[in-house]
C-alpha cells in the first residue's frame, strides 16, 4: 500500500512539473533584429554554422554577420540602436545586455574587417561606459550618437556624423575585453564638428586625415527592373543603390524613401523629356534644375551608375554592348559648381576631349577650365576600365576624382569631375556624345 501511495505522489509531481513547464513561456534572449538586407551574399555565423541573412532575422550574442561584395545589412538592437554593415565586412556581437542591473550591462561589438555605421540607442546614450566597438587594433568609445568606422588588420578610420567618440590603440592599458573608452596617453577624441577623420595604426596615437568624400559607384547596377518592393513603394534595386551612394547621409536617405508618398510637383523647366535621353543627371529629391532632373523623372526607364550625396548619373537600362573600335566623343553639356554649391559664371571650359577604346577598355579625357583671373584648371586622365559594364571611378595622379559611365550602346558618356586646390573645390558634371 505504501509503495502505491509513493508511486501516486511521484506521478502527480511529474505531471505537475510537466504542466508547469508547458505553461512557462520561454524567455526571448535575442538582442536585435535584421531590419532588412540588400544583396544576396551576406551570411550569419552562429555556433560555427552558417546560414543566409534574411529580413526580420533575430540576432543573439555571439552572432557574426558577414557581408559580401554587394551585401548591406541593417540591424536594429533592442535599445533602438542602429548598425549599418557595408559590403565586405564582418561584425561580431560579442555581448549586448541592456536589461537588469546596469552593473551587468555590456554592449561590445567587434568589427573584424570592413565598414559599419553605428547610431547609439537608449542604453548606449545613458550608459556610455558600457559600450565598446573594437577593431583589430583599436578601441572606440562613444561620447555621442552617430559615427562610421572602417577597419582592417593594420589600420582603422573613424568619422563622426553626430556627437563624438574617443579612439585609442590597444596596449597594456587599453584591452579589448573592457568596456567604455580607453583613457590612456594615446586616446584622442573626435567630434562631428572636426573637419577631419582619425586614422589609427597599431600602437600609435591617432592622426588626423582629410575627410574623403569619394564619389561612390553604385554596386550591382541592375540590368532590368526588379519586381517587389521594400519600404513602401521603393523598389529593392533602388534601395540597394541608395544605400551605396547615400550611406553617410541619413537625411537624404529618409527623403528618398519618402518620395513615393509625395506627388511630383510641377517641373517647369523647359528641357527634353527625361525618357527620351540615354543619360542624364537626377537629384535625390523633387527639386530639379535646368540640367538636373527631379528624382521621379530621372528614374524613368533608367538605372543608376555613379553619384554623390547631391545627384546621380542615370542611363537607360539594358545590356552593355558597345560597338567595337575607338569612340571619339564631343562635349554635349557641362555645368560647374563651386565648393559652396553655387553655379559659377566665371568658369569656362575652353578645351575638351574624350576617347574610349572599346576593344581594350581604355579611356582618355582632357578638360581645360579657364578661370576669370587668367589661370586654368587642367584635367588630363588616362584610365584602364576594370569593370565590364561601362562604369568607372578613379583618382588621377594629380589627385582629381572622376566617376562616370558609358551608355549601354557606347554612344553617350558622362562623368563627374572633382578638383581641389587652394581656391576651393570645383565639381564638374559632363555629358558627351560619340561623334560620327
Notes on the protein architecture:
- The chain has 436 residues and is mainly beta.
- It folds into 2 domains: 32-210, Jelly Rolls, CATH 2.60.120.1440; 212-219 and 273-435, Porin (Beta Barrel), CATH 2.40.160.
- The protein contains 5 helices and 32 strands.
- The strands form 4 sheets. The protein has a 17-stranded mixed beta sheet that branches.
- Strand 27 and strand 28 (376-384) form a beta hairpin.
- The model is unreliable at 1-25, 213-240 and 260-265 (pLDDT under 50).
Count of distinct structural domains: 2
> How would a crystallographer describe the biggest sheet?
17 strands, mixed
Number of strands: 32
Strand content: 35-45%
Q: Whole-Å distance between the termini?
A: 109 Å
Low-pLDDT runs: 1-25, 213-240, 260-265
What does the radius of gyration come to? 27 Å
Amino acid at each position: 500500500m505504501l509503495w502505491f501511495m509513493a508511486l501516486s505522489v511521484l506521478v502527480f509531481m511529474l505531471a505537475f512539473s510537466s504542466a508547469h513547464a508547458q505553461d512557462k513561456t520561454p524567455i526571448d534572449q535575442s538582442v536585435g533584429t535584421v531590419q532588412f538586407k540588400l544583396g544576396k551574399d551576406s551570411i550569419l555565423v552562429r555556433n560555427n554554422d552558417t546560414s543566409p541573412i534574411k529580413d526580420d532575422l533575430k540576432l543573439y550574442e555571439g552572432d557574426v554577420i558577414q557581408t559580401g561584395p554587394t551585401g548591406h545589412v541593417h540591424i536594429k538592437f533592442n535599445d533602438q540602436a542602429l548598425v549599418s554593415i557595408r559590403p565586405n565586412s564582418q561584425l561580431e556581437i560579442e555581448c549586448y545586455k541592456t536589461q537588469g542591473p546596469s552593473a551587468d550591462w555590456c554592449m561590445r561589438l567587434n568589427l573584424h574587417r570592413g565598414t559599419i555605421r553605428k547610431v547609439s540607442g537608449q542604453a548606449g546614450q545613458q550608459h556610455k561606459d558600457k559600450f565598446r566597438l573594437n577593431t583589430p587594433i583599436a578601441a572606440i568609445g562613444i561620447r555621442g550618437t552617430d559615427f562610421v568606422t572602417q577597419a582592417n588588420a593594420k589600420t582603422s578610420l573613424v568619422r563622426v556624423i553626430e556627437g563624438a567618440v574617443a579612439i585609442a590603440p590597444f596596449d597594456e592599458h587599453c584591452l579589448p575585453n573592457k568596456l567604455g573608452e580607453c583613457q590612456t596617453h594615446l586616446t584622442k577624441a573626435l567630434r562631428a564638428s572636426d573637419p577631419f577623420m582619425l586614422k589609427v595604426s597599431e600602437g600609435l596615437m591617432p592622426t588626423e586625415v582629410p575627410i574623403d568624400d569619394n564619389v561612390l559607384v553604385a554596386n550591382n547596377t541592375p540590368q532590368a527592373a526588379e519586381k517587389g518592393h521594400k519600404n513602401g513603394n521603393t523598389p529593392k534595386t533602388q534601395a540597394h543603390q541608395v544605400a551605396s551612394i547615400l550611406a553617410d547621409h541619413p537625411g537624404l536617405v529618409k527623403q528618398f524613401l519618402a518620395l513615393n508618398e509625395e506627388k511630383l510637383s510641377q517641373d517647369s523647366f523647359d528641357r527634353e523629356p527625361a525618357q527620351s535621353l540615354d543619360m542624364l543627371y537626377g537629384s535625390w529629391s523633387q527639386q530639379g534644375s535646368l540640367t538636373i532632373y527631379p528624382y521621379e523623372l530621372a528614374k524613368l526607364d533608367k538605372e543608376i551608375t555613379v553619384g554623390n550625396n547631391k545627384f546621380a548619373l542615370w542611363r537607360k537600362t539594358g545590356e552593355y554592348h558597345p560597338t567595337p573600335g575607338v569612340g571619339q566623343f564631343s562635349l554635349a553639356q557641362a555645368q560647374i559648381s563651386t565648393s559652396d554649391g553655387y553655379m559659377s559664371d566665371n568658369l569656362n571650359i575652353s578645351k575638351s576631349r574624350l576617347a574610349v577604346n572599346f576593344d581594350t577598355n581604355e579611356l582618355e579625357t582632357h578638360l581645360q577650365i579657364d578661370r576669370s583671373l587668367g589661370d586654368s584648371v587642367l584635367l588630363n586622365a588616362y584610365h584602364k576600365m576594370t569593370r565590364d559594364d561601362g562604369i568607372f571611378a578613379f583618382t588621377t595622379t594629380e589627385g582629381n576624382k572622376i566617376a562616370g559611365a558609358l551608355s549601354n550602346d557606347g554612344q553617350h558618356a558622362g562623368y563627374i569631375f572633382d578638383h581641389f586646390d587652394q581656391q576651393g573645390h570645383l565639381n564638374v558634371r559632363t555629358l558627351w556624345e560619340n561623334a560620327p
